[in-house]
């Protein structure tokens, strides 16, 4: 279950930031995420509630914290950015503009 969580977080990070920006901003890969337990979730409305529920129910030993300063990992989710990244990749993969 922990590996699934790490994979999901890593995939979210990869969707939003290319490798050069990841290095600049301090984003981590799966190896660096292993062992991190205190997570702060940054998202809007129902997305925030849903992500926090899933993390709390995951039984992976992850603790969702209330402030970024308390966290070892910050998970930032934007539905708009996710949709844009998905469409861009879909178009690229299918030879569309």
Descriptive notes:
The chain has about 100 residues and is mainly alpha-helical. The protein has one domain. It has 5 helices and 3 strands, in the order H-H-H-E-H-E-E-H. Strands 2-1-3 form a 3-stranded parallel β-sheet, with helices on one face. Helix 4 links the parallel strand 1 (about 40) and strand 2 (about 65). The termini are far apart. About 5% of the residues are buried. Residues about 15-25 have low confidence and may be disordered.
Please list the strands of the largest sheet in the order they lie side by side: 2-1-3
Fraction in helix: 55-70%
Number of strand elements: 3
Structural class: mainly alpha
Order of helices and strands: HHHEHEEH
Distance between the termini: 38 Å
The structural domain count equals 1
Give the rounded overall mean pLDDT. Answer: 75
Using only CA atoms, what is the Rg? 14 Å
Shape: globular
Poorly predicted runs of 5 or more residues: 15-24
The number of helical elements comes to 5
Strand content: 5-15%
